[in-house]
Write a structure and sequence with these properties.
Structural class: alpha+beta
CATH architecture: 2-Layer Sandwich
Number of strands: 4
Keywords: ATP-binding, Kinase, Nucleotide-binding, Transferase
Strand content: 5-15%
Radius of gyration: 17 Å
GO molecular function: acetate kinase activity; ATP binding
Largest sheet: 4 strands, mixed
Strand order of the largest sheet: 3-2-1-4
GO biological process, one term: acetate metabolic process
CATH superfamily: ATPase, nucleotide binding domain
Shape: globular
Length: 160
């Protein structure tokens, strides 16, 4: 799905600059090559359906120490059982978006908006790698892509 293509200033960058969002990780490309990436598997960046994203490390360390949590379980809290899974016991973004759009649960709206906000911040920070010139071109999750098209473009319009 392409969005923002009605902006003539962006069309010239379509073949050169793009941003691929994989597992909610913005990955900027220039001339077909990845030019930057975060270390999402170890907790950097925005939270996602199964990842916690960046955490306040001192508080997290105190939490795992005080609760006598082992390394493997702590890693699972960061990657595998973090993010939406920690909030809702599911990683099914489409189902959560369905509830979000029906206004069934205020917590879903709050958490999904927070995730989109964090992804938007990551999109803006990755703009540095491509001199502020990129275009979101693809995302592996259609429901997320549609939502980000509405949410992130408004927040990051100075980039797009």
């Amino acid at each position: 799905m392409l969005f923002g293509s009605d902006n003539p200033g962006l069309r010239q960058f379509l073949t050169v600059y793009r941003l691929v969002i994989q597992k909610q990780i913005p990955i900027p490309h220039k001339n077909g090559r990845i030019v930057d990436v975060n270390n999402a598997i170890e907790g950097e960046g925005p939270f996602a359906p199964e990842r916690s994203g960046g955490l306040p490390i001192t508080k997290f360390l105190k939490y795992i120490y005080n609760n006598r949590i082992g390394l493997e379980e702590a890693n699972n809290m960061i990657y595998g059982k973090g993010g939406l899974a920690a909030y809702f016991d599911t990683t099914d973004f489409a189902a959560l978006m369905d509830s979000y759009q029906k206004g069934k649960d205020e917590k879903i709206k709050l958490v999904i908006d927070a995730m989109a906000y964090q992804i938007s911040k990551e999109i803006a920070s990755m703009a540095v790698a491509v001199s502020g010139k990129y275009f979101i071109l693809s995302c592996e999750n259609d429901a997320l892509m549609i939502y980000l098209a509405r949410f992130s473009v408004n927040l990051c319009s100075f980039v797009f």
